[in-house]
């Protein structure tokens, strides 16, 4: 886990002082060191959080020939397998870091190296002979990457802050993104708050050639892959066996680290499954938060019960309203993008607590989207039809905005003119999944919007603010495609989703010990109303 940034302006020398400024703004993502590489018109910077090959994994990383140079943020979980293959061919990497395989594979097969990587990553690879830059993002969008045009070329960074030295003088607000945020609390698609700064999308790559030509392409498409993995008539026993094998494989790969790995434990289905997998691991530790209020679900009792059963040390954090209010400024700074999830505040608390002893934690993001945990995946037909009238072609899913009933005089006409753009984007995603069953289409839209631009953004930014890496085993792409291939009765039955995960969890122990196996989903709800009343009382 790191911060990366860079500039490529073919034929035009770069200003190294700009690279220094970009690096400084990403220092929180890599508190263990910083690296820089300049080759006339190409500049890379890297801020390092040391997790694999603590002594020799500094970046930039080079291929043995020196022709290919890389900076990368994330983890390549199948790196051990790739290292063994390279050794069999007498190829010796320049580092034992998991990311050291990237420049070698890219040099061998520039067009086809990305599908050979399993993991979470945002990366930049430069071919010093052909003077070609490749930028790419992982399949599920777990790791972020932002880009902007600069005179004569392109710049990139892990966070918008990293690009600010390049755009601050002429930066203007993007009203379309602002309106999408006001309506949804996050922004789906490429747009950001700043005109000219865009997100590289999940499974996407950019090639910038020596002649200045820029080509954007998709190297992996979730929708296309889901279409290939259409619903399979799994028997429950077969599905449980397959899930168990996938879970074991994913967790084995995600454990690749030279530092201890902890766990965020809520006592819900997803984190409970991860806890069972972590039981007995050396240096295992878990953290949970709770609210001293009756207005929202408190996770502490369930988490404590499971942690005691599995003999996992658990740190419990009781959250006070005034402390979380004092974290708002930091949460805005850390969030970096248009994402207004109130759960950022307790996540910051978890990250700070974990950072005192651990650099890596497991988290259960993706379980609800992959295995259909949300109640919204069982819509009332008439309600869905009425919502579809608001935006034809949208399927009536996620068409409502928070401001739809707001008097129009409260916002300028400029904002209201942008109101259809976010719905158009969602309708475009919806149409791309045509031909698939309704539940799968809803899951896909959530994975492309809510999951990437809210949940994963929150996890990455809040944890990286304290130099902690979050790993999400449920988002191994093989696990995702398996979840989407399940028949509907193994996803949802009545009001209960994640049926297969419930069955797996029930097999581990009795429901009386594991109430998450039968409980309805409660979600990670933050008592914002209570906080406001509490602070107002003071």
Please characterize this protein's 3D structure.
There is one protein chain. The protein is of the alpha+beta class and 538 residues long. It folds into 3 domains: 219 residues, Aminohydrolase, N-terminal nucleophile (Ntn) domain (Glutamine Phosphoribosylpyrophosphate, subunit 1, domain 1); 234 residues, HUPs (Rossmann fold); 55 residues, no CATH class. Helices cover 38% and strands 17% of the residues. The strands form 3 sheets. Strands 2-3-1-9-8-10 form a 6-stranded antiparallel sheet, with helices on one face. It has a 6-stranded antiparallel sheet with strand order 4-5-6-7-11-12. The chain has a 5-stranded parallel sheet with strand order 15-14-13-16-17, sandwiched between helices. Strand 2 and strand 3 form a beta hairpin. Helix 1 packs antiparallel against helix 4, helix 5 crosses helix 16 and helix 8 packs across helix 19. The longest helix has 27 residues. The radius of gyration is 23 Å and the shape is globular. The two termini are 41 Å apart.
CATH superfamily of the largest domain: HUPs
Label the overall shape: globular
Report the top-level CATH class of the largest domain. Alpha Beta
Distance between the termini: 41 Å
**Poorly predicted regions:** none
CATH topology of the largest domain: Rossmann fold
**Biggest pleated sheet:** 6 strands, antiparallel
* Helical percentage: 25-40%
Mean pLDDT: 91
Number of helices: 20
- Gyration radius over CA: 23 Å
């Amino acid at each position: 886990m790191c911060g990366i940034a860079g500039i490529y302006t073919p034929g035009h020398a770069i200003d190294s002082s700009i690279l220094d400024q970009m690096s400084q703004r990403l220092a929180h993502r890599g508190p263990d060191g910083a690296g820089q590489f300049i080759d006339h018109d190409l500049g890379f910077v890297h801020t390092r959080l040391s997790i694999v090959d603590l002594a020799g994994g500094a970046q930039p990383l080079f291929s043995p020939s020196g022709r290919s140079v890389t900076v990368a943020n994330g983890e390549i979980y199948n790196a051990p397998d790739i290292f063994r293959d390279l050794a069999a061919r007498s190829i010796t990497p320049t580092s034992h870091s998991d990311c050291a395989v990237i420049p070698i594979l890219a040099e061998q097969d520039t067009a086809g190296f990305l599908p050979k990587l399993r993991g979470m990553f945002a990366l930049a690879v430069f071919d010093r002979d052909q003077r070609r830059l490749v930028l790419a993002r992982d399949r599920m969008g777990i790791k972020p990457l932002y880009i902007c045009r600069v005179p004569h070329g392109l710049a990139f960074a892990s966070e918008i802050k990293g690009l600010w030295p390049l755009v601050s003088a002429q930066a203007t607000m993007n009203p379309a993104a602002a309106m999408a945020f006001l309506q949804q609390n996050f922004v789906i698609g490429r747009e950001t708050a700043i005109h000219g700064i865009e997100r590289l999308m999940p499974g996407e790559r950019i090639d910038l050639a020596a002649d200045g030509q820029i080509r954007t392409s998709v190297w992996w498409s979730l929708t296309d892959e889901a279409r290939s993995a259409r619903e399979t008539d799994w028997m429950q026993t077969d599905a449980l066996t397959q899930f168990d094998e996938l879970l074991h494989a994913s967790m084995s790969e995600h454990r690749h680290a030279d530092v201890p790995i902890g766990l965020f434990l809520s006592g819900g289905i997803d984190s409970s499954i991860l806890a069972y997998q972590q039981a007995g691991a050396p240096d295992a530790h878990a953290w949970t938060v709770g609210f001293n209020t009756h207005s929202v679900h408190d996770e502490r009792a369930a988490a404590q019960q499971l942690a005691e059963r599995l003999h996992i040390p658990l740190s419990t954090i009781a959250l006070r309203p005034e402390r979380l209010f004092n974290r708002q400024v930091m949460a805005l700074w850390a969030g970096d993008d248009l994402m207004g999830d109130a759960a950022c505040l307790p996540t910051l608390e978890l990250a700070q607590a974990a950072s005192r002893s651990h650099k890596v934690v497991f988290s259960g993001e993706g379980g609800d989207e992959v295995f259909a945990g949300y109640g919204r995946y069982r819509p009332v037909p008439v309600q869905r039809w009425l919502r579809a009238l608001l935006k034809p072609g949208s399927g009536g899913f996620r068409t409502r905005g928070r401001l739809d009933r707001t008097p129009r005089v409260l916002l300028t006409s400029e904002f209201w003119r942008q109101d259809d753009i976010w719905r158009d984007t969602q309708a475009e995603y919806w149409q791309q999944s045509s031909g698939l069953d309704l539940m799968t289409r809803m899951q896909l839209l959530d994975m492309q919007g809510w999951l990437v631009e809210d949940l994963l953004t929150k996890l990455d930014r809040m944890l990286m603010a304290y130099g902690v890496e979050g790993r999400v085993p449920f988002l191994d792409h093989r696990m995702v495609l398996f979840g989407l291939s399940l028949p509907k009765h193994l996803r949802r039955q009545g009001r209960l989703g994640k049926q297969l995960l419930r069955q797996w969890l029930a097999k581990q122990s009795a429901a009386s010990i594991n109430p998450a196996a039968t409980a309805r989903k409660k979600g990670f709800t933050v008592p914002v109303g209570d906080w406001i009343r509490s602070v107002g009382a003071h």
